[in-house]
Task: structure prediction
Amino acid sequence: MKINTFYRKAIDHQRLHRKFLRIMKLTTLLIIIALVHAGAASYSQKITLNVKKTPLATVLKSIKAQSGYVFFSKDLDVNQTIVDVSVKNASIEETLSACLKNVPINYEIVDKTIFLTVKEAGIIEKVKNFFMAPYTVKGVVVDEQGKPLPGATITVKGANIRITSDENGAFSITSNNANAVLVISFIGYETKEVAVNSNSENISVQLMHSVSNLNAVVITDSYGSQIKKAYTGAANTVSAEELNDKPFTSPLQALQGQVAGLNVTSSSGQPGANIQIRLRGLGSIGLDSNPLFVVDGLIINAGDMSRLSAGYTNVLAGMNDDDIETITVLKDASAAAIYGSRGANGVVIITTKKGKNGKAVVNFDAEVGVSSNIPIPEIGRPLSAADYSTLTVEGLTNEGISPTNTTSGIPFYINNYGLFKPGTNWYDLVTRNGQQQQYNVSVSGGNQSTKVFASAGYFKQEAGIIGSSFNRASGTLNVDQIISKRFTISLNFNGSNVNQNIPLEGNTSFGSPVNSLYDLRPTQNAYNADGSVNSSTADNTSFPTFYNPLYSVAHDKKQNNQTRLLGALTLKYNIWDNLYYTGTAGMDYSSLEETQYYNPVMSDFASVGGSGVNYYSRYANWTLRNQLDYKYNIPHVDNFHVDATIGYEAEKSNGYFISAQSNNYPSTQPLLTASANASTAVLGNASFSDYSFDSYYARASVNYQSKYVLTGSFRRDGSSRFGLSRQFGNFWSVGGAWNVDQESFFTNQHIFSSLKARGSYGILGNAGNGPNSTLSNYSAQPTAAYGANYAGSTGQNFSVIGNTLITWESSKDLDVGADIGFLKDRIVISFDYYNRNIDGLIQSAPVSRTTGFSSAIQNIGDMRDRGEELAITGIPVKTKDFKWTTSFNIALNKNTVTKLASDASYYNLIDFHVKEGGDFYTWSMPQYAGVNPANGEAQWYTDATKSKTTNAYNLANLRVDKYQADPKYFGGWNNTFVYKGFQLTTDIYYSGGNYVYDSAAPTLTDGTQYTYNKYQYIFDNRWTTPGQITDVPKYVAGGGTQADGATLSNSSSLSTRFLYKGDYVRLRNVSVGYNFSNLNTLKKYGINKLYLYGRGTNLLTKTFDGRLPFDPEVGVTGVRVLDIPQVRTFTIGLNVGI
Amino acid sequence: MKTRYFYIVIAGALSLAACKKSFLADAPPTAVPVSSAINSNSSMADAVNGMYSTMRMTSLFGRDIPVMGDLMADDIYISFSNSSKYLQENNYTFNNITPEVIDIWTQGYYSILQANRIINSSLPADATVNQLRGEAYTVRGLVYLELVNFFGTPATVNLNAPGVPIVKSFTTPFIMPSRNTVGDVYNQIISDLDSAYNLMPATSIPSNFHATNSEYIAKYAARAIEARAYLYKGDYTNALAASLDVIQNGGYTLSAATAFNAYWANPAPQAGKLETIFELALNTQTNNGTNGLDGIYSQSGFGDMLCTDPLYASYSATDVRKSLIVSGKRSAQPALIVNKYANYLLSTDKDDIKIIRYAEVLLTAAEAYARTNDNTDALIYLNMVAQKRDPALLGYSSTGTTTISNILAERQKELAFEGLRYFDLTRTNVAINRPVEPFGYTSIALIPVGDNRRLLPIPLAEINANGNVAQNPGF
Result:
């Protein structure tokens, strides 16, 4: 019976083998022939060889030289296979037969190509082996540099033997197979097979670093690690090389363009500002759409915790990217469902560097340079004094202002506004070249029992706008200590302090430098005649409404000081062979001190003697986790194991907030900005905010020969954020992977070097991740709060309507993907299709106001994100001296609102029309119909046929809703070129398919607000003569009146006139460096590595709308406000290794 | 092996020992569940304060109601130089998304919610609880009276017309009540005010849970508001009974003419039952700032609202009330500036919002007498007010409908800028003739009887969220 089965298997196998081969042959033949023939020269067909105990590789080289045949081998180490061969004037077949006589290798000749494969043991060999006396092979596993590799896995193919190399890389393995094949593998290295026999002695196996990241990468989350090969989820890992040493204020900025499907944008160039991250589209409407952030296994607070300058802080800005080993992005259910209620928007896992075994390595890095802002497009620059004067007089003339009257006519305006004088170039005064610096030092080292990584870093960036800067001091200490054979303890500590100076910001602050840059008239004088800063409000050449930004920046103060401490202690205990206990206790402490001071002379608070606002916000979170892991090898089946994990996790967050404001500061002492100097207390209060999570989780995976992997995860989460009866939710996933390349038939084709298919489905939740989540404790139940005082007595109100039925948002995620490797995985293509159905969106939705409230949080509305991701990584060229590594990714996403509340659609933020079947961020606004060439008036369409236009804005009834604010596609293309010691890296990011709106248009585009400066585009393209075709209407000061006497409709009113294509391609980063290899002189001084580099960031941006007057990276909502432009830096750096 | 099992048990226990259920029942010290928010007499007094604070908002009695009650009638107009407030009411172009329309509806029900919570609390009755609960009943009745008069047909016109939904308790956020009839709403108002009257002790609150002065509702304040409700309903017999009860038992007095200006200039509450029966407190800490009622009249504030010429002209030269209107200038043009709320710039206290005054009760009694054909008594109460304000006045001696006209004219003069005039015009179902002022902002001159704009529309937001609420005709 046994034999029968065996034979049937063998026959099936061969049939498949042949069939597959035939298919492959057809498809490969053309390519192969083309390849081979292209380089075919004339060779003799007779081969002569006479060698003994020579590596097969050498022999093959000789055969190739003599015959012109090309060899392809799979899973074979031709260096390790030793052969004896002696032939004279032999044919190719004779030569090969002689060569491979004593080794278990088959050959096949296809045209001019020879394929070598490992021979399967036939029945004769099997029987022979049975009687064979066991023999022992000793060897050592080494890396590329010849250093021993401890912990490598060695198995004998076809036998259930598995050992690992010792601390010296040495191993000793016993086999009774006459021609055994050893499989040597180690994470991060390419697996090698070595044929051995009883004659083999002390073999040395050299493993090469894996080219592809498919087999090498380990996906680590809070609850365990898996080799990517056996991973069923969709996840991407970005390694230190892509992240380290980049002059960005947050590691998240370095992530831009690195991971397919991860959209990283920021609306402000203020260094340290919040970064908006959307993984696979918009995940929520009312709750956080940012992914969950995990540092060294700990779920942490991320995002913006500011209460004073929302959007301008970011807790993760405290993280030094030089301390980061990897950032892994978990994208689908199989990967993220273990995070249960908080995994729905994906998970970003940051793993810091750990100490490595061996001599201590000290790395020092210094980088200095200059920073400025991304240049404003020429057409978006504010006008010069001369152009502004010309435009204003033209506008006044068009309005019908008397050209001669000196008290109310144009001469009056010229005099009053100081027109046609040299004026001020606000752009030059407000922008600057700032400093960019960073210094990092780290030590890594360890021995058998203790491994340590320690680092300290300092980072400073000044934005290209006066008053805007950032600096950070950070430190990391990671210690891994083996206490005994069974106990290991790990300590992770990361601390940082961030200081930010933020000038007044946004469209509305009268002292905002960016606002001033655009809005201030170039005829307003920045300086007095004596050279001092002009703080007069007396007349229109000074600052009657706006403030002089030079004065504001010098006298106002807006500072943030953020301290972050992350610590975790992990104890691992090996209960017995395959059963492990892991206990983790972690703490995440972040505090933010915010100070804003408005000077008493020229600010919004001048009338009350200046004002100072002080906020203190602190979050202290702790996490406790207990986990059991069990690895079970299914007996009697080769390479078939089950890994199971169960655990319990509890998390509690405690927020504490103090607010204080006081007015009346001493006006003659500009340095006394502390609240203690103020004479009037305005506000002083404190409050708290807590939440807790209580979770059980389990995960199991079944792995059969790394060929078939099935995983499942389950998490039951409870959160204090929900109604008492609805606090718990269940989340789960199932996933499968099929490594087709592990199938024996795979070896019969030679196109793909690896092939993996995977799929997953699961349910994930969203309970709001950010510190300022919409959901707070008690938002689920009706509550009363104090503070409703009356007649000097305390009062309480029924103030929160609550909704005891509120429960988790859930996302049903489907992912199907494949990873395909070519050319020994030198090229790997990953493709994913996903569909996320998000149900029960938590939103504050309208309720009958007879309840006393206008809205209540509800699980209302569904949404879908569907898309494809493609990532290609490869090494197109690799020679001895030159290596080109490239990676390209693109993600397409389509967001669709699938269900809304009872009313079919609603307008959100006025400009977006949210309706079933549409993208959530669908712009809705009147369609601009350009300028009437006859009279220069702005026109809008009145109906969908666009047959009629109107010059009255209130009749512009056609609201188009076909443009969306979120990108339809985005991705990156990153390249590294290494030639000898030189290295060139380029990172390109692109995004497109979306439209962005200019909310600054009302002041900067038409004559209604003629006292504000205008874009260059307006001056260049304004309508002046009948018949002129343009999109900029006639410039009329004050808006003017129409012929019928009605007020002229503002051409700057909300319309598609100010909607621009948001597509752009940006050269994010270019670095050129030289790695000094000839260090003999330096080595004397203990220097082992010296790398000198120069770098530029945000160097070039290509946009695709000729009218676009601003940088199109404006954040997820697509609305441009007058905010600090993104920073561009030029730096030089030195990296020294000791 | 034994030790192994021991370790497994330890690990298992650690791993599976979940926190107690209370772990998820966080109680942040910023709010309390509504169910336990009123757990003592003291906390009920706090809730009453909270209830008053909701009425103080500009979206309710703090500005919208008193301004609209005069502006939509003929007491005030908007200067051509203005801050763009109430322009839609001024020109009767309001619609279902006009902010004030939405605000009165929303904030009205918010105040009702606070009152409901106090009324429905399970605290056992004692004198304090009765007083506090009585205040809540009064507020509920008062707010429903405002709502039904803004959004419903006058009761004097049609009691069966749609009024506003009656909501008497908080159940879930997802209620969708339909509109009760005007008659039902009035029945509820009167029932509430009766409950209030019956619950509240005659004197004052027995223990010191809050002050006893005009800033808190007292027994006869409930009765006075009930008199107004009966008058608006057209139930003159009961209006008379209620007003007489206040007059005979309330202990309120009118100010001497010589002290009348000082009375208005005083921002502090009345402890001696002078003139004010109930007013909403605004003080240094809790006030509406520039958006207060004082700010819309004061030329130091927005100062948009000016007294109409005919109203000013209606005061005789010796009428002390005329001195509350100052003939001045706004944007270089002549303007009649209302000076009833004169403490806009006072930093130590702010003008309270007068909700009901004794003079109104007297005039209600007068009108109720007149309408129940007791001209003699009608004239007594009419003259009681008129002669107090104008010591030179010989007194009215009219009869029949002339008496009623005189009473209504006197009401206008007495209660001007307190937001009541509009309801006198709607309940008496007469055309609203609005003076055309030379320096006034665009407005409409005539709103005839039957014009749909005499009712505010139900806010669109309410109709969207509550399909059971029917819109008023014409919107």
Chain B touches chain A through 70 residues (CB under 8 Å). The mean pLDDT of chain B is 92.
